[in-house]
Structure formats: structure tokens, C-alpha cells
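Dear colleagues,

As part of the handover before I leave the project, I'm documenting each prediction I ran so the next person doesn't have to rerun anything. This entry is a single chain, and its sequence is reproduced below.
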Amino acid sequence: MSVIYLLISISIFVAVAFFIAFVIAVKSGQYDDDYTPSVRVLFDDELKKVKSEKLKKLSDYKKTSDS
């Protein structure tokens, strides 16, 4: 039974330590990003390149399905 008390106290200590680290990080401005949202609109979306093999298979499929 004493092991349970030990584990609970250690887990509470670790949780409090992580919470304090999080609060310090937020107060120091680590998560503030004012620049990126304002310029994100200006960037174009990247187009995904279709491999030539997939394009060829697609065109062959269309030819056979049209016939």
C-alpha cells in the first residue's frame, strides 16, 4: 500500500513540474508567433507533382474506358 502512495506523490510532483515549465514557457513568449499568420495568406499552396508513371496509367485507363 505504501508503494501506491509513493507512486501517486511522484506522479503529482512530475505533473506539477511540467505545469510550471509550461507556464514559464508561455510567459516568456515561446508560443507567440505574430509574424506567420499575417504572411501565410501571401504564400501559394504547393502543388503536388504527379509522377509520370501514374499519369501514363491514368491516360491508358481513360483510353480503354472510352472505347
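The CA atoms of residues 24 and 30 lie 9 Å apart. Residues 2-27 form the longest helix (26 residues).

All the best with the project,
I.
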